[in-house]
Amino acid sequence: MPLALTLTSLISTGLYAAQEELTVYTAFESDLLTRYKKAFEADHPDIRIKWVRDSTGVMTAKLLAEKSNSRADVVWGLAGSSMALLKQEGVLATYTPAGLNDIKSELVDPETGKAWFGNQAFFNVVCYNEAVAKANNLPKPESWQDLLNPVYKGQIAMPNPASSGTGYMQVSAWLQSMGEEEGWSYMSGLDNNIAHYTHSGSKPCVQAAMGEVAIGISQAIRGAQLKTKGAPLDLIMPEGGIGWDVESVGMVKGTAREKAARTLVNWSLTAKANEQYAEAYAVVGHKEVHKPVANYPDVESAMVSMDFGAMASGRKQVLKEWSERFDQKSEPRS
């Protein structure tokens, strides 16, 4: 073997051997994982990310189940409501990362002894297929109450809140903005028109774009992406306000790879990392990073006030009641 190739091989082998592997639990959409991993590892070639991905609800349950013997080092890309619960249950370590002052305060753990930090905010929207609506003579809804109209029976999909953070934040938004009694009454009325509940937050909008349903209560970012690709969608911000949450990062308490975990958390808050988020999200955590997303609606004007602590503490009871009432319409898990 030529000397140059030998040296290259030795250097490469030595670098790989020196890499520390971080197990990172996430609910980021699958198409983002390779890009985020590549960007971080380019800056920190001594650390390698091993992703473990599932939907928000499943990942939250997994972290709680592993509380006494955690297999994760970092949680990156999980809803703030889930992170608040994980903090309450002692899963996350309190930590003050470098660059915290550069992050919007409303996207950060509001408590003293902070444990989670927002990377980007995500929002719901009503994805309305104009072509399907025209073919079926369906009116354009303007408010949440409009969706109770029997004309939409079998034409609406939304995420199951037990398996999707997108679903849980909308259920929470209804309960917090309408009140418990009216919120549950509203969801019972809406269930009459629901075709099915999905286990993915983006899927209802995808199904609306494909014409499988006329309306998908879903992620605003997925709706914007699909509309940009030519789907006949109108993205509606219903009267009454929309649910939202924060995809966040935090370090798992007791990780044996604390130094590397801190490095990843710190990096995830940098402007460079936020520029990655801004490729797919219109609202990111860093105060100085802004990039418009094509066809993204004015979500910030329709935000309801969200209490993440209440979302965390009430999660178990809310999901239990929701499942007892409505789970029979959930799609089978793939």
From TrEMBL:
SUPFAM superfamilies: Periplasmic binding protein-like II. The keyword Transcription regulation does not apply. GO terms for molecular function: thiamine binding; thiamine pyrophosphate binding. One of its GO terms (biological process) is thiamine transport. It comes from Endozoicomonas elysicola. The lineage of its organism: Bacteria, Pseudomonadati, Pseudomonadota, Gammaproteobacteria, Oceanospirillales. GO terms for cellular component: outer membrane-bounded periplasmic space. This is Phosphonate ABC transporter substrate-binding protein. The keyword Signal applies. Keywords: Signal. NCBIfam families: phnS2. InterPro entries: ABC_2-AEP-bd, Ferric-bd.
